């Protein structure tokens, strides 16, 4: 991510009261008006699996997400767990297969950068999910 202007951080959005835990990696790129974040989190049961999410936020209002997405195998997915499939025994998961998965993710990082900069969804950025409030509190509908 460094070649795309991102730096690894220990706290979310420079907030010392929001440290990352040991199962997370986060990279941030700060511009004049926006901060771009790429967040990786690993399976909580120490299985070699992870997900990747990314977003662009306004610096003036960091709770305001301009756009966000996840890196997926197919654009029709909402999320994807990279690494060892859940069904596969850990004994059969080799370092070679792990490196292969990492190589796939690295080759797809330009799609993350393009999406954060322009909003263009590449073939490995999840489909857009819009959340609209229904007529009463607590109810939401997902639309595509």
Provide a descriptive summary of the structure in words.
- This protein is an alpha+beta fold and 144 residues long.
- It has one domain.
- The strands form 2 sheets. Strands 1, 2, 3, 4, 5 and 6 form a 6-stranded antiparallel sheet that branches.
- The C terminus is likely disordered.
Radius of gyration: 16 Å
Net shape: globular
Structural class: alpha+beta
Give the number of helices: 1
Q: How many domains? A: 1
Strand content: 25-35%
List the helices and strands and how they pair.
Blueprint: E1 7-9, E2 24-30, E3 34-42, E4 49-58, E5 65-70, E6 82-83, H1 95-118, E7 130-133, E8 140-143
Antiparallel strand pairs: 1-2, 2-3, 3-4, 4-5, 4-6, 7-8
Attribute tags:
144 residues, alpha+beta, six-stranded antiparallel beta sheet, two-stranded antiparallel ribbon, 1 helix, 8 strands, globular
Brief write-up:
With 144 residues, the protein is of the alpha+beta class. It contains one helix and eight strands; from the N terminus they run E-E-E-E-E-E-H-E-E.
């Amino acid at each position: 991510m460094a070649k795309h202007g991102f730096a690894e951080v220990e706290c979310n959005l420079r907030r010392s009261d929001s440290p990352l835990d040991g199962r997370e990696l986060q990279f941030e790129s700060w511009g004049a008006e926006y901060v771009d974040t790429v967040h990786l989190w690993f399976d909580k049961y120490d299985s070699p699996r992870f997900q990747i999410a990314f977003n662009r936020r306004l610096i003036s209002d960091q709770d305001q997400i301009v756009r966000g997405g996840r890196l997926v195998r197919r654009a029709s997915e909402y999320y994807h767990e990279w690494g060892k499939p859940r069904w596969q025994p850990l004994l059969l998961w080799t370092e070679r297969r792990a490196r292969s998965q990492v190589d796939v993710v690295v080759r797809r990082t330009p799609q993350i950068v393009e999406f954060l900069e322009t909003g263009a969804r590449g073939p490995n950025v999840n489909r857009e999910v819009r959340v609209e409030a229904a007529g009463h509190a607590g109810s939401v509908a997902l639309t595509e």
